[in-house]
Design a protein that fits this description.
six-stranded mixed sheet; 41 helices; transmembrane helix; ATP binding; repeat; alpha/beta; 22 strands; disordered C terminus; nucleotide-binding
């Protein structure tokens, strides 16, 4: 920065700090990219600045007031120093004049007046005598004491200024975090439908950090600068009001530039974030459903989609760089023109009207300039305030929002006695996130106490919705629900929910132990209760078989457990509540026959004397219900017992007849097929990352070299401006000691013209630097993000099982690492070139004029530089700790937000709030420690410069008196070196950025360099033309890489001829789905081989192999785009015509349903397909598989989640699709398997018998037993 020297003194260091703070602000904002609050960006600043402090206690307020006062005093120090400086200048000038006169041997100094030797008094033109006898050394000693005094004062106040503000902010942020999270947990479910979990997590971390930036040290630095501004003007007016007014007249131009720049930057950053948020959500979606992407070979397509969204962000970034360049150039241009004007007019006042002394000229000029500069430097702080206020807007809006359904409220009745009659009165409802789709349409029905009521109907007819309304996740739009005749809106929520036990189709477990998961059902239960509940839920035996029994961790989302196991834990959790009302939403659909019978029995026991609502597709589970209610289009169209409804020949009748055709056998059998997902040992050591070599980072920026070159040229010119300024400035001081007035005037005019030239140059060079580096940096960021994303998608699926590579972690890595790497190139190079030329030129100037003095001043450089480095190091050290500490809290919050429905159903909101608050303690403590250390370093940095002045001017005085050095040289040397010191400090203050960039880059390169265990490239491995689809598993053994101790496949032996259908049956966790994953080559077997058309799978080209396989899984993953695009996803190698899509949709029995939607094939399916019912998603997935026209079809429980009606259509679609293809089916329902060519019964990772249905029935072994009695397979 080219601030005037005075400023230099004080601000030099402070600047590095704030540079570090204010400069990295834009970069920080890039990290905040994943903001989805585009809509809210419009009404940016509705939160007033002082409202940011609404969480301050009186103690915080006191700390902030004292800190603010210290900042005011600190701000006054620099202008105070100017007074000393002015006096000092006068002393030097007087001494120089005296020396010039006494050079004439005929003159001598008597009684402080110059006399001729002959005794008469020497007079100059205006009959004035000439003063003499300046004791320069004594004077200088006195000035040195002044400096030291001011320096010590600054040391003390600047420590308090920072320490108090930072710790007060830490306390408030702690409070905001707690309040915010607590409030979010109180929101009704409808609110979560409209706010994505990812966005809420980002808000908790990034937005609150932005508020922190706005209320911490930035404020005190802002106060300090404003105070310098005020005192600077005061010093100016006291010294000479005319000159002050002239300078003031020009300064609005400076202020204007600073203001506009802050506005523009905030605006553009917002735009850039918005643009990046889109790309971020693409990345998140893709990484979350990586198995689907891999199976359908969608990697390249996804990279393109991601890159498309990056272009927009890049363009905004370039605009931002350019605008910053223009405004900075303009700012410096004005400042230099100001110099020219002020010196020209000031010298007039000194020489012609004698109103000012040279010292006062300096004092006035720098007073005003320092004031203007500090006003300008206060603007980055304003930017921090603005982004803090913008962030606070969303945070405070949430904090102030009253939830429509408040789960913490004490309001509402608690009935003394609950019988359990539930009645719906003309209930109409639609989800808040989809107001145009009616889910329930004036539904009326009565559910009697103590009876079991079953809901049946096609998917999407509103069965599950009624259950959610009854739990009061939503309020009905019209009509009401009553419990024992009381409107449930008048009842206490926590109490109401405590009456309800719910078991869902896909139960959510929390990432803790089994026992803790069950404890969530009811506070304060004993271990005996837990054991009793697990016995009732038929979970006890499998839990006791696990190595850690009840202390087994279930993994993230229960991922370590098979479906049936999760289900039984969930049932135990519901039973332990001893609920009055039991809601079973397809509770047994994921269980095998034997477990189902027992669980069903457990549920039947549980149902005694309780009001029960069952939703099921399996009619066998419903037969014995007291009342069956048939749903259609959001209405209850019929109700009665099984036999009544069969006579009515309505919805129920069609469902039953459909289900009964062709199976005289029990409807459903075999255990669930959730493969056991890998468990991670969390203790894996964090790997140390060596910082990446800069050369390699630059390689990625290679194609931008012309920009980099231009930018560096601009930076070099900028760097040399400061030293030139030091020469011109001291030259002006020198002119005051010239006796000849005309000569003096000519010199001054010359210097002013040079100032103007410097001004213009500096405008262009700054613009050039801003634009060129902005462009190259943004291009690099985009390239790295794209390359990084590509590298992620190239990894084998097993890599994503590692918790360190969870989708969340990877998306943040893309967002932040790439923009941090930019810190090591671009603007960074600019800073370095700038600082180097600056330091180089300054040293050359200084040493060429006076090497002795230069050496003394240089002694202080290390200290000045050191304090900069010190600060930088300290801040980065803390940043890492903070991140680590916040991670633990972040995990709690993201788990809580992701499973909010389950938590609400269990009334466990407060438990999560407490856990979260405990996790916040550690980061809070470290923040308080940070305040003190930061304060000490800041204070040290601030006072070094005063000490440097004291020493160098004292020594300068000595040289002037004893070695006849011209005082102009003293000023020149000191200002040149101090300027280079600031430059050095600035270069060092960028080290943190630089170090961060190198580490970020290293992590990035580690990702790029990782060689996937299973190569995804188009060239590796063989391809062949007549792919038949013959499959063989030969003695495959396999364990998941993240859980090496559990053998999933143990010598699997089975083969399928082309065109045959192989069905796998067996318990959950016996390796059925795993075999499918081996076939897709998500994993490779540890021993044994998988042969495809007789070739070992690991020699086959992966994209080629996957292109031959179509997969339909139990819970299909859809992407957040239209239905048509989801179907197109089936074949990513080409553009697909609409005809093909429609054709596939017809085959999957999807077409008719799509045509009923308002936007037909362009209907968006929502995130993860959330806008569609199960059956609809399933059919889209089938259409997607059909479009591929695969040789091998894998159906992993493709119909288990469907109701009978959808199942029939889907089953027909699948039978259609199976023709002429090799097919592997995993199913629970016998009807779907009977026709298979080979049925393989699996147990513990191996096939125990195989054959057709008839053969196996004849054998009367495992399969027969399964079918007839549902006995376990051992």
């Amino acid at each position: 920065m080219k601030d005037p020297i005075y400023l230099k003194k004080v601000t030099s260091l402070q600047e590095d700090t704030d540079r570090e703070y204010c400069r990295t602000k834009p970069d920080r904002e890039e990290e905040e990219n994943e903001k989805g609050d585009g809509k809210k960006k419009e009404k940016l600043l509705d939160v007033g600045f002082f409202q940011l402090f609404r969480f301050a206690t009186w103690k915080d307020t006191l700390m902030m007031v004292v800190g603010g006062l210290c900042a005011l005093v600190h701000g006054a120090a620099s202008p105070l120093m100017l007074l000393v400086y002015g006096m000092m200048t006068n002393t030097f000038v007087a001494y120089e004049l005296e020396v010039q006169e006494l050079a004439d041997p005929n003159k001598t100094c008597i009684n402080n007046t110059i006399n001729w030797i002959n005794g008469s008094i020497f007079e100059i033109a205006e009959n004035t005598t000439v003063f003499c006898g300046v004791d320069i050394e004594a004077q200088m000693t006195m000035f040195a004491y002044y400096y030291v005094g001011i320096g010590l004062g600054v040391l003390i106040v600047s420590y308090f200024q920072i320490a108090l503000w930072v710790s007060a902010a830490a306390r408030q942020i702690q409070r905001i975090r707690k309040t915010y999270f607590r409030k979010v947990m109180r929101m009704e479910i409808g609110w979560f439908d409209c706010n994505s979990v990812g966005e809420l997590n980002t808000r908790i971390s990034d937005d609150i950090n932005k508020i922190n930036n706005a209320i911490a040290d930035q404020v005190s630095i802002f106060i300090e600068r404003i105070s310098t501004f005020i005192f600077g003007f005061m010093v100016g007016f006291i010294g000479g009001w005319k000159l002050t007014l002239v300078v003031i007249a020009v300064s609005p131009l400076i202020g204007l530039a600073a203001g506009l720049m802050a506005m523009a930057v905030a605006r553009l950053t917002g735009r850039e974030l918005q643009a990046y948020a889109k790309a971020g959500s693409v990345a998140d979606e893709v990484l979350s459903s990586i198995r689907t992407v891999a199976a359908f070979g969608g990697e390249d397509k996804e990279v393109e989609r991601y890159d498309k969204n990056l272009i927009e962000a890049q363009n905004w970034g370039v605009k931002k760089g350019t605008i910053i360049g223009v405004f900075q150039g303009y700012l410096w241009c004005i400042i230099f023109l100001c110099y020219a004007l002020a010196f020209w007019y000031g010298s007039k006042l000194v020489i012609e009207t004698k109103e000012l002394s040279p010292g006062t000229l300096i004092q006035v000029f720098f007073g005003v300039l320092m004031a203007a500069m500090n006003l300008g430097q206060a603007s980055p702080c304003l930017e921090a305030f603005a982004s803090g206020r913008a962030a606070a807007k969303t945070i405070f809006d949430t904090i102030d929002r009253e939830p429509e359904i408040d789960c913490f409220s004490e309001k509402g009745h608690k009935l003394d006695k609950v019988t359990g009659d539930i009645e719906f009165h003309n209930v109409t409802f639609n989800y808040p996130s989809r107001p145009d789709v009616k889910i329930l349409d004036s539904l009326s029905m009565l559910i009697r106490a103590g009876e079991t009521t079953a809901f049946v109907g096609p998917s999407g007819s509103g069965k599950s919705t009624t259950v959610q309304l009854f739990q009061r996740f939503y309020n009905p739009k019209e009509g009401m629900l009553t419990l024992d005749g009381h409107d449930i809106r008048s009842l206490n929520i926590q109490w109401l929910r405590s009456l309800i036990g719910i078991v869902e189709q896909e139960p959510v477990l929390f990432a803790t132990t089994i026992a803790d998961n069950i404890r969530y059902g009811r506070p304060g239960v004993t271990m005996d209760d837990i054991i009793q509940a697990t016995k009732e839920a038929n979970a006890y035996n499998f839990i006791m078989d696990l190595p850690q029994r009840f202390d087994t961790l279930v993994g993230e989302g229960g991922g370590q457990m098979s479906g049936g196991q999760k289900q039984r834990i969930a049932i135990a959790r519901a039973l332990i509540r001893n609920p009055r009302i039991l809601l079973l939403d397809m509770a047994t659909s994921a269980l095998d026959n034997e477990s189902e019978a027992i669980v069903q029995e457990a549920l039947d026991k549980a149902r005694m004397g309780r009001t029960t609502i069952t939703i099921a597709h399996r009619l066998s589970t419903i037969r014995n219900a007291d009342v069956i209610i048939g749903f259609e289009h959001g209405r209850a169209v019929e109700s009665g017992t099984h036999n009544d409804l069969l006579e009515k020949k309505g919805v129920y009748f069609t469902l039953v007849t459909l289900q009964n055709q062709g199976n005289d056998m029990p409807n459903k059998f075999l255990c669930s097929s959730y493969s056991i997902f890998p468990q991670q040992s969390k203790e894996e050591a964090e790997e140390r990352v060596e910082p990446a070599p800069v050369a390699r980072i630059l390689k990625y920026n290679k194609s931008e070299w012309p920009y980099m070159l231009l930018g560096s040229i601009g930076a070099a010119i900028n760097g040399s401006v400061n030293p030139i300024y030091a020469i011109l400035f001291s030259q002006i001081l020198g002119t005051f000691s010239i006796r000849d007035l005309d000569e003096q005037r000519a010199q001054i005019n010359g210097i002013c013209i040079l100032f103007c030239a410097v001004a213009v140059t500096s405008f262009f060079s700054l613009f050039l630097q801003g634009y060129a580096f902005g462009k190259s940096g943004e291009l690099l960021t985009r390239r790295l993000r794209k390359v990084g994303f590509q590298a992620m998608l190239k990894q084998e699926v097993g890599w994503f099982d590692d918790p360190r590579n969870s989708p969340g972690a990877l998306t943040t890595r893309l967002a932040t690492d790439a923009s941090m790497v930019q810190g090591a190139t671009g603007s960074q190079i600019g800073m370095i070139v700038n600082s180097l030329t600056n330091i180089g030129a300054s040293f050359i100037i200084a040493f060429s004029f006076s090497w002795k003095l230069s050496l003394v001043v240089v002694c202080f450089l290390p200290l000045i530089g050191l304090s900069g480095v010190f600060q930088a190091k300290m801040l980065t050290g803390f940043a890492n700790e903070d991140k680590k500490a916040m991670e633990a809290a972040g995990q709690v919050s993201s788990e809580a937000l992701a499973n909010i429905r389950t938590i609400a159903g269990l009334c466990k909101e407060s438990t999560f709030v407490e856990t979260y608050e405990q996790q916040l303690e550690a980061p809070y403590k470290s923040a308080k420690k940070k305040a003190n250390i930061y304060g000490i370093c800041f204070a040290f940095a601030q006072c070094v410069i005063f000490m440097a002045y004291a020493a160098s001017f004292r020594y300068g005085g000595y040289l002037v008196s004893s070695e006849r050095l011209h005082y102009l040289v003293v000023f020149r040397v000191i200002s040149a070196i101090v300027i280079s010191g600031t430059a050095l400090g600035k270069a060092s203050s960028f080290t943190p950025d630089y170090a961060k960039a190198k580490i970020a880059a290293a992590q990035f390169f580690k990702l790029l360099d990782r060689v996937p265990k299973i190569s995804m490239s188009q060239i590796d491995g063989e391809k062949w033309d007549d792919f038949k689809g013959e499959l063989e598993f030969i003695n495959c053994k396999f364990t998941y890489p993240t859980r090496p101790d559990i053998q999933v496949l143990n010598g699997l032996l089975v083969s399928v001829k082309p065109g045959q259908t192989l069905a796998f049956v067996g318990c959950s966790g016996c390796g059925k789905s795993t075999s499918v994953q081996l076939l897709e080559r998500f994993y490779d077997p540890d021993e044994g081989r998988v042969l495809i058309d007789g070739r070992p799978s690991h020699t086959v080209n992966v994209p080629f192999l996957r292109a031959q396989i179509g997969i339909v899984s139990q819970e299909p993953v859809l992407f957040d785009c239209s239905i048509a695009e989801n179907i197109q996803y089936g074949d990513n190698t080409r553009r697909m015509s609409m005809e093909e899509i429609v054709d596939a949709a017809k085959k999957a029995y999807l077409h008719d349903f799509v045509m009923t939607l308002p936007d037909k094939y362009e209907t968006p399916v929502g995130a993860q397909g959330s806008q569609l019912s199960r059956g609809q998603k399933q059919r889209i997935a089938i259409a997607r598989a059909i479009v591929r026209n695969p040789k091998i079809l894998l159906l992993d429980e493709a119909t288990s989640a469907l109701d009978t009606e959808s199942e029939k259509t889907v089953q027909a679609a699948l039978d259609e699709a199976r023709r002429g293809r090799t097919c592997i089916v995993i199913a629970h329902r016998l009807s779907t398997i009977q026709t298979a060519d080979i049925i393989a019964v699996m147990s513990q990772g191996a096939v125990i018998e195989r054959g057709t249905h008839e053969e196996l029935m004849a054998k009367r072994a495992a399969y027969y037993k399964l079918v007839t009695t549902g006995a376990p397979i051992s």
